[in-house]
Amino acid sequence: MRVIGVGDNVVDKYVYKQTMYPGGNALNFSVYAKQLGVDAAYFGVFGDDAAANHIIKTLNGLEIDLSHCRQHKGENGYAAVDLVDGDRVFIGGNDGGIQKDHPIVLTKEDIKYIKTFDIAHSSVYSDMDAELHKIKEAGVLLSYDFSNEYTDQKLKTVCNDVDISLLSCGQLTEEEVEALLKKTHSYGSTLSIGTMGSRGSMVYDGENFYNQKPYFVKPVDTLGAGDSFFTAFILHYLKGKKESDIQAELIKRSLEKGAEFAAKTCLVDGAFGHGLSY
């Protein structure tokens, strides 16, 4: 299996200790897939500052393919983060930095490259919603993280191009999560996934709902928990689909794999470590 994260990258700047860690939804997907033993690539936009250089150096060290990334003069994306009892609190940022001025526009060559992967993963923070249809039309399985940045219009527009939708639903009741996942499915996503923080996660496949409680640990840092949960879930799910496993049992096992891996992520500073003082 080969996977690619397409879109956002940042450094998460932990202001209270003046340390920055590589991150971003699309980038994290690539890194977590690599940690799980899968061939992974990342395709995004970098600046040319110390933050960008640190991310590039880290990904090269992890042997993640960056061959199609863009780099421009300017400030890389960053988010300012504080920690309260091990939980992440975002306190600012630069809205993607250089990515705002140079968003990804997929060329025919880019699409040819992306077609060599089993799944591409993007996000609401990647500034490339208008390009998603090119990936979908190329026949590549596409997943997308809405985080908690979704409106009905956003879902209606994006889900038509997205096979697997991931939504942060910690602020919703279980009944509201069920209604949201049904709606997401009706707009075009085959699989809809809601993460609910300490209450776990829920999946809807168009017929049934599946729930998973989290693996409880005393967290060092919850940053990246959702991304790592999704990565482990979807990789196990796709492997099982190739082996023609029974859908219900496959989703249940995949949810367990996701919860287990997310718990391990919560024991690491930043999304996946590799901190650098700034």
Automatic annotation (TrEMBL):
Keyword Cell division: no
Entry-linked Pfam families: PfkB (PF00294)
Entry keyword set: Kinase, Transferase
InterPro entries, per the entry: PfkB_Carbo_kinase (IPR050306), PfkB_dom (IPR011611), Ribokinase-like (IPR029056)
Family under the similarity heading: Belongs to the carbohydrate kinase PfkB family.
All copies of domain Carbohydrate kinase PfkB, residue ranges: 13-265
Name by which UniProt lists this protein: Fructoselysine 6-kinase
